[in-house]
Automatic annotation (TrEMBL):
Domain Isopropylmalate dehydrogenase-like: 8-364
Molecular-function GO term, any one: NAD binding
Keywords assigned: Amino-acid biosynthesis, Lysine biosynthesis, Magnesium, Metal-binding, NAD, Oxidoreductase, Phosphoprotein
InterPro entries for this protein: IsoCit/isopropylmalate_DH_CS, IsoPropMal-DH-like_dom
Residue span of region Disordered: 176-197
EC number(s) reported in the record: 1.1.1.87
Requisite cofactors: Mg(2+)
Name of this protein: homoisocitrate dehydrogenase
Entry's family note: Belongs to the isocitrate and isopropylmalate dehydrogenases family.
Reactions catalysed, as given in the entry: (2R,3S)-homoisocitrate + NAD(+) = 2-oxoadipate + CO2 + NADH
Length: 368
């Protein structure tokens, strides 16, 4: 009998409904069939705006060090970031991405196969730079009016890394499509509109010729010069027309790669294609670590009501496993979630259902 593998998972609930959905991720991992040969241990760590209010820091150093030394991966819940400036506060998830070199934010957007127009695409967002370097200043002009400036930083290294990540994901998705089409169970999968892996580079280099221009040129170079990507179809899309086409023709896209800001906006907007942010997962991925993170916020309007949709967290848990190389375990979770959504009997209020968080989690666990 093969030795069982034990994975150490850090749990960072954060604020609001993060404390209600991150336990769902833990329960899903614990419910995986023993035949997969996996064991999990869990530790809980602090971060978020409430942590800042209590400790004066949104991301305690002990949290960072624990993730580095004691965890193989992590799940992050949500942050109640204030919309106005709070002296000394900065987003802990942005800081974690930098401290752990999590250079890619991977956001699949997938509808159920029975949808009238099935959606199945992935947005790959550069995670460490662009306007999110948060180098801003405000000063007074000669006429006494205020001027605010922000640095937009794009590097060749980060652009090359994220392009390669997008290429690798596109190739993996194509392998899955080919395996599904040749499998006897292929009828359970949504039909694909793509016969070859497709990567769409999104930018605004017609205006930002140096920053977005560098992103575009680097991404193209990586995806056209590396023999590993010869099977890719490569295209480009200016970001404003990208928004229009994404909503009008989502089936035209497979993997979209974009700088940080555009990727953030596109991925949140794309959630509307599948009905709710409560369905959309993400993973913050580096060379040595991965953090699964649901795309929704802390949702203070429903905090404590027990009705938060746990599906984004459950899918983020599967995505975390996928980037740990545990694709079989991830696939089990994806299938259980799809079955829950397709049956539609136990869905949360954001999807028009009446099920509680607990009821949805129990139903997915049962399907595992």
């Amino acid at each position: 009998m093969a030795a069982r593998r034990t994975l150490r998972i850090g749990l960072i609930p954060g604020d609001g409904i993060g404390r209600e959905v991150i336990p769902a991720g833990r329960r899903i991992l614990e419910a995986l069939p023993s035949s997969l040969g996996l064991n999990f241990t869990f530790t809980t760590h602090s971060a978020g705006f409430e942590t800042f209010q209590k400790q004066g820091v949104a991301l305690p150093e002990e949290t960072v060090q624990a993730l580095k030394s004691d965890c193989d991966a992590a799940l992050f819940g949500a942050v109640s970031s204030p919309t106005t400036k709070v002296e000394g506060y900065s987003s802990p998830i942005v800081a974690l991405r930098k401290r752990l070199a999590l250079y890619a934010n991977v956001r699949p957007v997938k509808s159920i196969r029975t949808a009238a127009s099935p959606v199945d695409l992935v947005i790959v967002r550069e995670n460490t730079e662009d306007l999110y370097v948060k180098e801003e200043k405000t000063y007074t002009a000669a006429d006494g009016s205020k001027i605010a400036e922000a640095i937009k930083r794009i590097s060749e290294t980060a652009s090359a890394n994220i392009a390669a990540m997008a290429g690798d994901i596109a190739l993996r998705r194509q392998r899955v499509r080919e395996a599904s089409s040749s499998s006897s169970s292929s009828s359970s999968d949504a039909p694909s509109h793509h016969t070859s892996p497709l990567v769409t580079i999104t930018h605004k280099s017609n205006v930002l010729s140096q920053t977005d221009g560098l992103f575009r040129e680097t991404a193209r170079s990586v995806l056209t010069s590396n023999p590993a990507y010869t099977s890719l179809t490569l295209e480009e899309q200016i970001v404003d027309s990208m928004v229009y086409k994404l909503f009008r023709q989502p089936s035209a896209y497979d993997v979209i790669v974009a700088p940080n800001l555009y990727g953030d906006i596109l991925s949140d907007g794309a959630a509307a294609l599948v009905g709710s942010l409560g369905l959309v997962p993400s993973a913050n991925v580096g060379k040595d670590f991965v953090i699964g993170e649901p795309c929704h916020g802390s949702a203070p309007d429903i905090e404590g009501k027990g009705i938060a949709n746990p599906i984004a967290t459950i899918r983020s848990t599967a995505l975390m496993l996928e980037f740990l190389g545990l694709e079989d375990a991830a696939a089990r979770i994806y299938r259980a979630v799809d079955a829950n959504l397709e049956e539609g009997r136990l869905t949360s209020p954001d999807l028009g259902g009446g099920a509680s968080t607990e009821e949805v989690v129990e139903d997915v666990c049962r399907r595992l």
